[in-house]
Amino acid sequence: MISPRNQAPPLNIGAEELWSVPAGRLLERLETTAVGLDAGRVQERLKANGLNTAAAVKRPPLLLQFLSRFRNPLIIILLIASGLSAATGDIASFVIVFAIVTISMTLDFVQEVRAQNAVEALRRSVAVKATVRRDGSSQSIPIDQLVPGDIVELIAGDMVPADSRLLESRTLFVNEALLTGEPYPAPKQAGDTATGSENAVGASNAVFAGTSVISGTATIVVCRTGNHTALGHLATSLAEKPPDTAFTIGIHRFGMLITRFTVLMVLFVLVVNISFHRPVMESLMFALALAVGLTPELLPMIVTVTLARAAMELGRRKVIVKRLSAIHDLGAMTMLCTDKTGTLTEATIRLVRVIDGFGAETTPAFGYAYLNSRFESGMKSPLDEAILSAHPFDMTGWEKIDEVPFDFERRRVSVLVEHGDQRELIVKGAPEDLLRLSGRYAAADGHEIVLDDATRQTFAATLDSLGAEGFRALGIATRRVERNHATAAITDEADLLFAGFAVFLDPPKATAGAAIQAMAAAGIGVKVLTGDNELVTRHVFAEIGIPVTGVLTGDALSHLSDEALIGQLSRVNLFCRVNPQQKHRVLLALKRMGHVVGFLGDGINDAPALHAADVGISVDGAADVACAAADLILLEHDLSVVREAVVHGRSAVQNVSKYVLMGSSSNFGNMFSMAGAALFLPFLPMLPIQILLNNLLYDVSEIAIPFDRVDEDSIAAPVTWNVSEIERFMLIFGPVSSVFDFLTFSALLHLFGAGEAVFQTGWFIESMTTQILVVFAIRTRHGLFRSRPRGFLVGMAFAAVAVAIALSLLPVGRWFGFVPPPAMFFVYLAAATAAYLALVEVTKMYFYRDPARRTRGYG
Ligand SMILES: Nc1ncnc2c1ncn2[C@@H]1O[C@H](COP(=O)(O)OP(=O)(O)OP(=O)(O)O)[C@@H](O)[C@H]1O
Ligand SMILES: [Mg+2]
């Protein structure tokens, strides 16, 4: 016999070992080197250590997922009860009950798993990737494929993929807010001894999964992956569950509503039957079948399939959905916050010229800007790219000594450089700040002149006129330092020598104005939150034809209390020079006002707001932190795509609401009449198996609901879930359905003189027909014939009705206790169905008489 090759044990590095052991020893322990692992070793470790994901997000195996459906207490009791009746000889009914239960579960399960798989495949296409050294080269792979021993390169904007030790680092700052709650960037540095390691993630020579790189670069060796990371521990201990959204809460409340009614009805039926001395077993089965009939068991499937379908369609429109339920939030979204670059502008930033404070072109300032952009180690901003691609610049002789990395509070970056025997600090950043920090300026002939108030004002005027013409600008300044000045610090950014302005053009997007107007027409307000200055942004607004209704700058914002901010929010649609925390704050304030808020952004500075938003939207190619925080990824940076996504979100919610309204009205009414009929009939109004069969066919007819068309006007405004509205619907349309049931009772008893079996068959047919066909009335708020359903829905509904009638007429029907009713019954059936639908139509007109109701959703 060949025994399987012994699987290597998982490679585990202790949490302490990670930072306390010298780096060389750690590499030995991990059996790796600076050039990385080879493919064979990676495979071995993937097998032993598993994927690099937190356990909570892993799905259990398919079979378990399937079996877990049977955990439903109703189903268990039903199966036990039918098992008992089998023991007393009624094997046929056990087989049928079992078959019906299994078929409907399988149907449901297959639909749902297929939908989930399709969505998962899309989601993987935007998985966050890491640059890893393997087999002697650098490759980009999804971070769940990382194993201990992998050597990974990090740059600003990257997510740290796993708990790792730093091998090399340059001016590295990371955001550890997720683990420590500390919002300010923490410095990190490669080294054998760690400082600040008193708390688990404090070690200065290690970085941890769930944190992100704010600035600088690093090379790391992965030590602990998946569950073993500090984040993994956190995730499992919090039993990670996505936060409840308005929609999930609504669904839950609907479930509770139905459960309450179900319990009441089952108890009622049991009490009545037992007090009439009917057989206990039969009464129990009857009550249970009723309960099964009432349960909206397809709801999870309908929800998943509508969402998945929307996600697939959005995928074709180049929008990738990472969190499925975000689609509902999109449907309910009332406010969208967005950044400027790429949304309002083309994001094809070009350096047009470099000028001095008086507006004359100057060359030295370009050289400084170029050096600063080249030496800067953070994530290159589009402004840097524009500078670097403007002209070539000869860098020979220039050397970088140190850097003060860019951050969104200071809005500038400094590099300390050396050329020959001179050292200088080159600062580049928000121009108004650089002017403020400068004490002198370089004249055209190279002389240094003191920046007096008058000149300062001239320079500021030059800057303003740039902004008014729509040019973006960065200020450039320098400062000569001593030769022994070895490190750069923020405090060095003072008393600067002003060199000039780098002037950029980022043309406004031609389609942006129309896109914002379309959003407004769809009931969604748009606010722009940018780190850029007011004049430039105002110019962009003017170009795209959108009025600025009010402006708040970051400075002004920092002086407002939360209440004062909320007071201003409805007026202000432009926020300028705001930092990441302020973007976050505005977002929270909007949420507090009751808005469902979306946030669209692509920068490191957008990540906090993306996290907090109801719908976080980012774009392909954005900083990893932004992508990781987002629920939706746009493959094309365009506002009009968001508008389309909103339409899909609203349609999805409306389709789910069709199912819910069906279940809570007609189906509910039928079960209700059944319970009532049990009161005065000498026999059961329908056999338990017949009720289950009824339920199965009804479910099948509803499979098409996620694919149905929705009325234009029902998705014209944000759609929110409203349980009290559903309750009202239930209390009006349920009885309407019962009226016809009782009509059918008396027709069957008196007109057709039906005995037990014929009565049950007749009623089965009538309730199936009305309950299924009413979907055409309930699916729209308009007249039945004014709104065209999708062919699939029509097909499924009529097929289900046909099967129900055929089953009761064909010989197989006898297994279910059916006996063909007289031919005249079908004439009655046609008339009653038509009358029922007509009555529902009239009731609908009454129900939706308030026009506001017609466009607002419940669902
Ligand atoms: N590479 C850089 N070097 C120096 N300063 C920079 C750099 N990138 C950005 N800044 C400064 O920081 C400010 C804010 O950055 P940025 O414009 O990216 O913010 P934002 O909120 O993402 O803007 P947007 O809404 O346009 O996306 C810029 O206006 C500029 O003054
Ligand atoms: Mg940005």
UniProtKB/TrEMBL annotation:
<dbReference type="InterPro" id="IPR036412">
    <property type="entry name" value="HAD-like_sf"/>
</dbReference>
<feature type="domain" description="Cation-transporting P-type ATPase N-terminal">
    <location>
        <begin position="17"/>
        <end position="90"/>
    </location>
</feature>
<feature type="transmembrane region" description="Helical">
    <location>
        <begin position="729"/>
        <end position="752"/>
    </location>
</feature>
<dbReference type="InterPro" id="IPR023298">
    <property type="entry name" value="ATPase_P-typ_TM_dom_sf"/>
</dbReference>
<keyword id="KW-0067">ATP-binding</keyword>
<dbReference type="InterPro" id="IPR044492">
    <property type="entry name" value="P_typ_ATPase_HD_dom"/>
</dbReference>
<dbReference type="Pfam" id="PF00690">
    <property type="entry name" value="Cation_ATPase_N"/>
</dbReference>
<keyword id="KW-0472">Membrane</keyword>
<feature type="transmembrane region" description="Helical">
    <location>
        <begin position="74"/>
        <end position="101"/>
    </location>
</feature>
<dbReference type="Pfam" id="PF13246">
    <property type="entry name" value="Cation_ATPase"/>
</dbReference>
<dbReference type="InterPro" id="IPR023299">
    <property type="entry name" value="ATPase_P-typ_cyto_dom_N"/>
</dbReference>
<keyword id="KW-1278">Translocase</keyword>
<dbReference type="GO" id="GO:0005524">
    <property type="term" value="F:ATP binding"/>
</dbReference>
<comment type="similarity">
    <text>Belongs to the cation transport ATPase (P-type) (TC 3.A.3) family. Type IIIB subfamily.</text>
</comment>
<feature type="transmembrane region" description="Helical">
    <location>
        <begin position="825"/>
        <end position="847"/>
    </location>
</feature>
<dbReference type="Pfam" id="PF00122">
    <property type="entry name" value="E1-E2_ATPase"/>
</dbReference>
<comment type="function">
    <text>Mediates magnesium influx to the cytosol.</text>
</comment>
<keyword id="KW-1003">Cell membrane</keyword>
<dbReference type="GO" id="GO:0015444">
    <property type="term" value="F:P-type magnesium transporter activity"/>
</dbReference>
<dbReference type="InterPro" id="IPR004014">
    <property type="entry name" value="ATPase_P-typ_cation-transptr_N"/>
</dbReference>
<keyword id="KW-0378">Hydrolase</keyword>
<keyword id="KW-0547">Nucleotide-binding</keyword>
<keyword id="KW-0460">Magnesium</keyword>
<keyword id="KW-1133">Transmembrane helix</keyword>
<feature type="transmembrane region" description="Helical">
    <location>
        <begin position="257"/>
        <end position="277"/>
    </location>
</feature>
<dbReference type="InterPro" id="IPR059000">
    <property type="entry name" value="ATPase_P-type_domA"/>
</dbReference>
<keyword id="KW-0597">Phosphoprotein</keyword>
<dbReference type="GO" id="GO:0016887">
    <property type="term" value="F:ATP hydrolysis activity"/>
</dbReference>
<feature type="transmembrane region" description="Helical">
    <location>
        <begin position="791"/>
        <end position="813"/>
    </location>
</feature>
<dbReference type="InterPro" id="IPR023214">
    <property type="entry name" value="HAD_sf"/>
</dbReference>
<dbReference type="InterPro" id="IPR006068">
    <property type="entry name" value="ATPase_P-typ_cation-transptr_C"/>
</dbReference>
<dbReference type="InterPro" id="IPR006415">
    <property type="entry name" value="P-type_ATPase_IIIB"/>
</dbReference>
<dbReference type="InterPro" id="IPR018303">
    <property type="entry name" value="ATPase_P-typ_P_site"/>
</dbReference>
<dbReference type="Pfam" id="PF00689">
    <property type="entry name" value="Cation_ATPase_C"/>
</dbReference>
<feature type="transmembrane region" description="Helical">
    <location>
        <begin position="758"/>
        <end position="779"/>
    </location>
</feature>
<feature type="transmembrane region" description="Helical">
    <location>
        <begin position="283"/>
        <end position="308"/>
    </location>
</feature>
<keyword id="KW-0997">Cell inner membrane</keyword>
<protein>
    <recommendedName>
        <fullName>Magnesium-transporting ATPase, P-type 1</fullName>
        <ecNumber>7.2.2.14</ecNumber>
    </recommendedName>
</protein>
<dbReference type="InterPro" id="IPR001757">
    <property type="entry name" value="P_typ_ATPase"/>
</dbReference>
<dbReference type="InterPro" id="IPR008250">
    <property type="entry name" value="ATPase_P-typ_transduc_dom_A_sf"/>
</dbReference>
<dbReference type="GO" id="GO:0005886">
    <property type="term" value="C:plasma membrane"/>
</dbReference>
<keyword id="KW-0812">Transmembrane</keyword>
